[in-house]
Amino acid sequence: MQFVRKLLEKYIGNTVVFNGPRATAFFARNPKLEFLNNVTNLAPMMKWSLSIVPISQIISGTKPPQTIDLAQASSLCATGTVWTYYATLIQPQNNGTRLLAICNGAMAMCHGYNIYRKTTHERSIKNPLHVNTTAVATD
Question: What residue range is the signal peptide (predicted)?
Answer without folding.
Answer: none
